[in-house]
Amino acid sequence: MSKVSNRTKIATALVGALALAGSNLVVADPLSDLQKADSKIHQDAAASQEKVNKYFDQAQDMAFEYAQVADTRESVKSYNDYVAGLVADQEATMKLIQDDIDGVDKLRQGVVPLMFKMVDALEQFIALDLPFNLEARQERVQRLRDILNTAEVTLAEKYRLILDAYNIEREYGTKLNAQTGQLQLDGKEILVDFLNFGRVALYAQSQDQKQAWMYNADTKAWDKLEATYLRNLNKAIKQARGQGAPDMFALPIPAAEAAQ
Hints:
It is built from four helices and five strands. The protein is 66% helix and 13% strand. It starts with a helix and ends in a 20-residue tail after the last helix.
């Protein structure tokens, strides 16, 4: 009886141990699965975080690039606006230049006839003036006529030369001028020193300083001066040539014409 009981107890113990072992095996499998799942979750979370970090960095880079593009766009827009302003200003300037060119063409049409009239007037003025330095003055007028009829000289240069000729004539009327030349008198040519006191009077003195004459604008002839004027005339000629100190001298002058 006791022998059976011991065997029974041993069998029971073995069955219990096996049951407990089976029970531990059954419990251990879900725990392992849970640990594996938790580890996977952590791995997936880490991977997701890496992706998030990657996308965040990409977003930051894109935001920076966008800011740069926006700044560049503003710079380009400002530059384009500046260039557009320059172009508009240049177009306005070109229009003004074209208007000036059109105006020059119209001015040319009026200036050319005017220049011919100015040369004609200068020639007539010299013919009516006292006949001092006559050859040089007439040659100057002829050169102006030749220049007006040539295409090699610009319109502006032609006009400048005419004004220069007028200026030379103007200076003749404000200076004491002396020059040597030939005087036609009684069918003879006499070498004399001419002296013109502006356009007031014109004198001539022989080289030996023994004779002198004054031009008579009314008769277009030369009137002989008295010997008392010879010294004063010689003094005036030297002053005109810069050969004598400024000094007073007395010479006869034509009477002023009565006002009409």
